[in-house]
Amino acid sequence: MKTLFLVRHAKSDWSNHNFSDKERPINQRGLRDAPLMAQRLKLLNIPINEIISSPAVRAWSTAKIFAEFLDYPLPKIKQEPLLYEADIKIFLSVINKLPQSKDTVMIFGHNPTLTQMIDYLADDELSKLPTCGIAMIAFDLEEWKFVSRNTGELKMLDSPKKI
Predict the structure, then answer these.
(1) Can you give the residue range of the structural domain that contains 54?
(2) What per-residue confidence (pLDDT) applies to 84?
(3) How far apart are CA 162 and CA 83, in angstroms?
(4) Phi, psi (degrees; rounded to nearest 5) at 120
């Protein structure tokens, strides 16, 4: 059994137009929402074996906030450059290459790809994963390399809008 958490970065700050898209930080709402969502996830008491993030500042910052609340060592968060501006095929290749020893993995990334991945993996008609939204998808599989279209089941969908 494998469990995948897909987390969209917290709300980003558009006030400074000097930042490139990749450098854009999270805003005050994001700084409020990320700890709240991380705390809600912590209540599930599911140990996270691996955290992977897009290298974009807003995703990386959100991943660090979640890691702190989940008692996951910050130096162990992995940056995966392929997750920034990834399409479904690239995102799936990252999932398929996850270490088999890691049963529960959390990936921080961006829309529209995260919403598309949820629909692809769990055959769910999600319109849009909100900022700082979390999807938990379970796979009745022993190896990540077998994750593909409709092999997962959406077990949870949460967002700051539900608080």
Answers:
(1) 2-12+22-162
(2) 95
(3) 26
(4) -70, -45
